[in-house]
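Quick start: read one record
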Amino acid sequence: PAGVFEAIFPGIETPFPYRIEIENDEGHCWQQEDPSAFDCVLSDFDVHLLGEGTHLELYRKLGSHLVEIGGVPGVTFAVWAPNAERVSVVGDFNHWDGRRHPMRNRGECGIWEMFLPGLGEGEVYKYEIRSRETGDLFLKADPHAFRYEHPPRTGSIVCNIDGYAWEDDEWMAHRRTGNLLEGPIAVYEVHLGSWKRKEGESPGYLSYRELADDLVPYVREMGYTHIELLPVTEHPFDGSWGYQSLGYFAPTSRHGPPHDFMAFVDRCHQEGIGVLLDWVPAHFPKDAHGLATFDGTHLYEHADPRKKEHRDWGTLIFNYGRREVANFLLSSVLFWLEKYHIDGLRVDAVASMLYLDYSRNPGEWIPNEFGGNENLEAIAFLRRMNEIVHARYPGAVTVAEESTAWPAVSRPVYLGGLGFTLKWNMGWMHDMLEFIKKSPIHRKFHFGTLTFALLYAFHENFVLPFSHDEVVHMKRAMLDKMPDADLWEKFANLRLLYAYMYGHPGKKLLFMGGEFGQWEEWNHDRSLQWDLLRWDSHRGIQTFLKDLNGLYRECPPLHETDFRPEGFEWIDFHDVDSSVVSFLRRGKDPADILVCVYNFTPVVREPYRVGVPAPGFYHEVINSDTAKYGGINVGNGQGVQAEDVPWMGRPYSVSLTLPPLGALYLKPGT
């Protein structure tokens, strides 16, 4: 017989273990625990926090978790779907039949939950959700899953991420007590799927553990302080580069299971390298198995089309004003910092979050309650996120990719800021590339473009980024951006550009491939052009970046005072006819200085006099024209002696030979 059965045991008021025997139409008979016999998965306190939107460790309760209840092993499931008529867990274990395992509705907070006895690690599952409004059925991946199937498959996987034996205690302790803003930060930006691939295999991705053995030693050898990963949060479409994520609690399965990603981060820390993740709270894709219309209603996104969609990207915008949605995103941030020991997050597309009229025409957006275009809900979310991150994880960094003049992005919330640690200096990047692309003969007419960034360089804690966005979509690779001339000039210009970047106040970021002068634009479907390192010119660029990183880390004036006006002084920026600029960098000790001189023409300038603040011998610690970098060895040997000749408002001066399209770093000493 079919139907619902009830058994009453008089005098027994507490749950007790029992099993039920089931026989199907084919006569097959089996016994199993009854899922409805087990207590609630979420406590009343969990339910209270969920309703408030203040459950900072949501990932510990929602999603799937391997547990043992009353001596019975199994898996708990919990998902937020307040407008569903029914939610069931489905998978191979019940032939994807939503009638078999309907979940318990905790109506007070919109959570559906259940415990399934006998399930184990590796089970693939989804949620079958019936819409209360239409009765339609949806199959959805678990928003809180710790692991997903390899795309294009879309199932969630029961996965235990506990138990990894971390060996990075020394790194984590130093991170908590170090002064990040005064230290060197040189970031190597990486897309794991295309840094290097296995030949003869498709797609040929390196695993997380292979990357730990290959990428990490390379980054250490090159002298970078951090790796920044394009989003590793699980995403269905390779061509999104990870920026259209659906798995906010899972590293992509393209490179292996979660513990292997932990091993990658662990290896980085053991080698003295920090790990930053690109993280995308601005929008999410419309894939049917994802967050869009999750329970048949606009749950994670806005319902109003004027707030709902980023038309440029074809994606949906999170509803930051909904407590549960903001809680979901905040819990994701804390999850990566807690469970994966990530050192910080770069928040993508912040400008699109801050403005209600971002990329919208008049009439296509709704003003806020005060009539302005500021997205007050997104602003409140970002401020709360930054405050909680800095309070719970001292030393962790949050970085904003923010391309407008929004004030105080990297200033504390209590001072009216957004609370980020650092902000990408998109203005400097655009100006610098526009300047360096110009023919040297025309640069003297555009010196304002070169020097303008120093008017605002200390308004924010800036990162100077040459990122992946600058080497795609017909923008050309870094080397190919250099003015059309002979090859020697192209390489010399690129070395000059990097030398200016490292001398300029601000932390540093360079996308992979730029460090050895890749010719082609970045393509996420294939490896970098490592074969170019057969050529001396490309090895020279690579060696130059390595030496720049080494000096940058060892020389306090280049990093200690990046965000203080007293750390920078112009020596001269008026010699536009020669296209030469010079400046001082100072450390916290005002006597600790570095002189930086740049010649933006392919003409040797000698003798060229530069004012300096102190007597003594000035060592030539960097010369971008050195032969090992691919130059022609024009320079000043070991250095020059300062002369008692006042110049450029300085009491002393040095007479230099400036290499063509070259940069010099000079440090006084014995």
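The mean pLDDT is 95.
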